[in-house]
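Sequence only, no structure available. Ideas?
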Amino acid sequence: MADPSGLPAVDTGLDAPPSRRNVAVVVGGVLLLVIGAVVLVLGTGAASNAGDDLSHARRKVDAQRAVTRRAQQCESDLRAGLPQVVTAGSSLLNTAAQITGQDQQEVQATHDGQAAGADNRLGDYNGTVDRANAAVGAANALIGSVNQQVTTLDNDARSLETACAI
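Reply:
I predicted one. Tokens follow.
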């Protein structure tokens, strides 16, 4: 076509139909663009899921560390208070052994008194009664001490219970 301006006409190729190769390149480019967008979306979603999983795992680890710290503090408190409980228990057992010894002396004095009474030895009988009464008196005094020791042991043991109340 002739241009009214007088300049020579240039063929831009816009009127020419696209070749198959050009269409394939454009379709391939669009296809690559779509695939890239899908990979980007899936990758972002996977990264978000991995971040969520990591955050959840960190919270679990933090919670487990807190429980471990409380357990370690409990162990430390128990170790600190246990010697008092052992001492109180040992003292109680020692006093109980002394009471048992006094009871054995009282039983022996009673047997001796029965034998002295059966043989009509009144002087010996009166001595055995005095021994039995002395053993009973000593045992009764120790029983008061045992009651105090039981209270001490109970208080010390309860302090251990409260040391680890979670």
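The mean pLDDT is 85.
Hope that gets you unstuck.
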